[in-house]
Structure formats: C-alpha cells, structure tokens
Design brief:
By secondary structure, the chain is α+β, with helices and mostly antiparallel strands. Helix content is 39%, strand content 31%.
Length: 190
Amino acid sequence: MMNRSIFQVKITFIFLLAAASFSSCLVSSRSDVDVFNKNEYARTVSVKTIKVPMLIGKPLIKNYLRNEENVPAEIVRLTSGIKKVRVTLAKTTNTKLVTAFRTSINRLPGSEWFSLHNGSQWICLKGDQDAKSVIKRITVSISAPEANQLVHVNVKCHLTPDQLSKLINYTINSEEKISLKEPVKTKESQ
C-alpha cells in the first residue's frame, strides 16, 4: 500500500513538472532582437519567438543524438550545458530591416566564433564568455533574404571554449558528410 502511494506522489510530481514546462514553451510576437520591435519595421515584419522548455527539450535532444549514427558520446554529454533556448523567426521583404538585423547582431556582446557568407545569405555564431572563460551565451543568427527569413537563436549555456569548438566542428563535419553522400536512387531514376 505504501509503495502505491509513493508511486502516485511521483506520478503527480512528474505531471506537475511537465505541465510547468509546457507553460514555459511560449510563442510570442515579441523578440529579444530589438530591431524587430522597432516601430519603423513593425508593418514589414512577421515575428514569432519560441521559448523551448528545457525540461522536455533536453532529454529529447539527447535521445535523438544517441540514436543517430556516429554521434560521439561526448557531444551528447555537452547538451547538459544548455540551460535555455529561445528561437526567433522573422519574415520580411524589407531590405533595410535585413541590414539593420545584421548590424544589431554584430553589436551583440561576445566574440564571433563562426561566420559564413554565401551570396546574400549569412550565418554568424557568437559566444559571450565570463571572466573565467566560461561561455554563458551563444547566439546563432541567420539571414536568408531570398527566402525573406531571418533567424536568431539565443542559447544560455555553461560551456568551455573547447566544448563549443567541438560542437561547431562536429556540426560542420556532419553537414559535410551529408552533402557528400550519393543521391538516393528511386525507382523512377533507375
């Protein structure tokens, strides 16, 4: 009888934690990127900001990585250093806003760890370190004017520069492997 009541308390506690984490998954039309909130761009941009519930998100990410081929255990463990994730998606055709977005990202605190320009597309990863060289915040910003999209990912974390380098290198290497694979042959192409 005692074991059953303990089980019920545990289930109730887990349910309450899950309910609390769902409420933390908020979708908003406001952004932590100030340029999207300016009045001059309000009519030319559609913004959605998603705050990811880490109570549910972190185990899902770890499970996904564990089931993927060739993902080192160290990469899976590094996800424990992620504390909070906020993703902002913006759609706009306003070229002035695209330029203002890039300028505002360049002014964010932290040092640039990775930057890639491909035509008018742009990807920038910045890391903000504390006095002990622990990275407390990572921002990933993507500008894709052809698709009328701007993306900003704000990650609160606790990672060392070496750990961030490993994450970046793993991501780049896995993307290169995907792009180098032979195309899948279908019945129609044979």
